[in-house]
């Protein structure tokens, strides 16, 4: 589920969800803020795959492990 495959679309994978979250991190945000942004975009049809809150956490862990994001004072920042 981390990578897209024949049966998993890119937007349904954690890698695809991670790319979406990185686009939303133009300014530091909390986990709750990211979840609210995702839910709003899902409702408006800007993001097509239904993700759970657990997948959000797994995606943030994945992004942190590849040093794409960092956490400071409870806020998620995009690394350069």
Description:
The protein has 80 residues and is mainly alpha-helical. It has one domain (10-78): Arc Repressor Mutant, subunit A, CATH 1.10.10. 48% of the residues lie in helices and 10% in strands. It has 3 helices and 2 strands; from the N terminus they run H-H-H-E-E. It has helices at 14-24, 31-44, 53-65, and strands spanning 69-72, 75-78. It has a two-stranded antiparallel ribbon. Strand 1 (69-72) and strand 2 (75-78) form a beta hairpin. Helix 1 (14-24) packs across helix 3 (53-65). The longest helix is centred in the middle third of the chain and has 14 residues, at 31-44. It starts with 13 loop residues before the first helix and ends with a strand. The mean pLDDT is 92.
Please supply descriptive tags for the structure shown above.
80 residues; Arc Repressor Mutant, subunit A; two-stranded antiparallel ribbon; 3 helices
Helix residue percentage: 40-55%
Overall 3D form: globular
Order of helices and strands: HHHEE
Number of domains: 1
| Low-pLDDT runs | none
| Overall mean pLDDT | 92
* Beta fraction: 5-15%
Task: Report the radius of gyration as a whole number of Å.
Answer: 12 Å
Biggest sheet details: 2 strands, antiparallel
List the total number of helices. 3
Name the CATH class: Mainly Alpha
Global structural class: mainly alpha
Please provide a brief summary of the model.
With 80 residues, this protein is mainly α. It has one domain: Arc Repressor Mutant, subunit A (Orthogonal Bundle). 48% of the residues lie in helices and 10% in strands.
